[in-house]
Amino acid sequence: MQFKPDLATAVGNTPLIKLRRASEETGCTILGKCEFMNPGQSVKDRAALSIITDAIERGELLPGGTIVEGTAGNTGIGLAVVGASMGFKTIIVIPETQSQEKKDMIRLAGAQLVQVPAVPYRNPNNYVRYSGRLAETLAKDSTHGVIWANQFDNTANRDAHIDGTGPEIWEQTGGKVDGFVSAVGTGGTLAGVGMALQPKGVKIALADPGGSGVMSLLQSGEADMSGTSITEGIGNGRITKNLEGFMPDFCYKVSDEEALPIVFDLLKDEGLCVGGSSGINIAGAMRLAKELGPGHTIVTILCDYGTRYQSKLFNPEFLRSKDLPVPGWMDGTPDDLP
Ligand code: PMP
Q1: Closest CA relative to residue 248, chosen from 151, 316, 180, 188
Q2: Pairing verdict, β 29-34 and 16-18
Q3: Which segments of the chain does DSSP mark as H helices, in order?
Q4: What is d(CA 102, CA 104) in angstroms, rounded to the nearest whole number?
Q5: Angle at which helices 256-270 and 276-292 pack, to 10 degrees?
Q6: DSSP-assigned states of every residue in 146-185
Q7: Cα(309)–Cα(313) distance, integer angstroms
Q8: Closest residue by Cα to residue 254 from 285, 233, 224, 223
Q9: Where in the chain is the domain with CATH 3.40.50.1100?
Q10: Exactly one of 18, 33, 44, 322 is catalytic; which is it?
Q11: Pocket of ligand 1 (CB under 6 A)
Q12: pTM for this predicted structure
């Protein structure tokens, strides 16, 4: 018999697939790591498992204990499903602007959901700060342990990629990987994979969406937050503990206008339904491909599954309201019928 003892042990070891059009257009082999194939359908399952395991090992979380976190969604889903599979309760604090699909999924996974207004970090009711306070309060009367996952500054997040994602990419490519590209939310993926692969000679690139200050912070120390993006889960206005001590070789600013057509073509032509951050990543991978020249192999992250964004990214009315291009096929006017 072949089976896993529980869902938590099914996290990771995701396949790498060749992205046909991105590869053809650049003359490189561009590979997507299918993180949407994790049990919670996103890359954040890895951070969730690593943070929980680390807390258990440090004796902070006992069976029946509670995990509290502030999250844009995917970490919440990861903590809820992985936490439930390991016997923990989860409370998730989320900005109310996040997609309904992600909120529903967190609730369906058995977590308690607390919605707060989307306010900047300096506001004490910001979702991250709110969740930290909530964990502190609950910990006072707890007998089984309460942890604040603190994904932004808890480096157990980055460790998941130093020990998991990075080495997996190295093994899957037989060491023949020239570049790696990722956007930053917490920075766990970029810095973790970067720390694993940069010392082996792999060029690491940041793909940063509009409205994020990460690229300018790394380049000049100043946060330039200009621009906007409809992508969720990426962008940041500060250097988190997960990013500290890591410097990518290249940085690219990627607009939604550049990234979203890639997401739509990928669904129509290659059967791949991914979220907006994957589009930012692939656009970044194509920029790195042009920088390195034809014949190179570049890996990027397909962070989560697209159905999570049905009401936004894959909704023509929403796209039009943001002045973003709507592909004909999505609008019920297929452009390639005979
Ligand atoms: N894409 C999506 C959809 C995400 O939810 C996240 C995490 N917030 C990321 C990318 C970025 O991952 P990381 O936190 O490791 O930087």
Answers
A1: 180
A2: antiparallel
A3: 20-26, 44-57, 74-86, 100-108, 127-139, 156-160, 166-172, 188-197, 214-220, 256-270, 276-292, 316-321
A4: 5
A5: 100
A6: EEE--TTT-THHHHHIIIIIHHHHHHHTTT---EEEE--S
A7: 5
A8: 285
A9: 8-37+164-328, 43-148
A10: 44
A11: 42-44, 72, 74, 183-190, 232-234, 275, 277, 303-304
A12: 0.96
pLDDT at 89 over 70: yes
- Tell me the best of 44, 154, 307, 312 to mutate to test the pocket of ligand 1, counting ligand atoms within 8 Å of each CB and taking the most: 44
- Helix ranges (DSSP H) in 164-244: 166-172, 188-197, 214-220
Burial of 156 (0-12, 13-18, 19+ CB in 10 A): buried
| 165 close to 50: Cβ distance less than 8 angstroms | no
Mutual orientation of helices 74-86 and 44-57 as an angle, nearest 10°?
50
Instruction: Give the tokens for residue 268.
Output: 């129509």
304 CA to centre of ligand 1 in angstroms:
9
> What CATH class is the domain 43-148?
alpha beta
ipTM over 0.95? The verdict is yes
Using one digit for the tens of pLDDT, what is the confidence trace for 4-54?
A: 999 999 999 999 999 999 999 999 999 999 999 999 999 999 999 999 999
Both tokens assigned to 222: 């100043």
CATH classification number, 8-37+164-328, choose in 3.40.50.300, 3.40.50.1100, 3.40.50.720, 1.10.3720.10: 3.40.50.1100
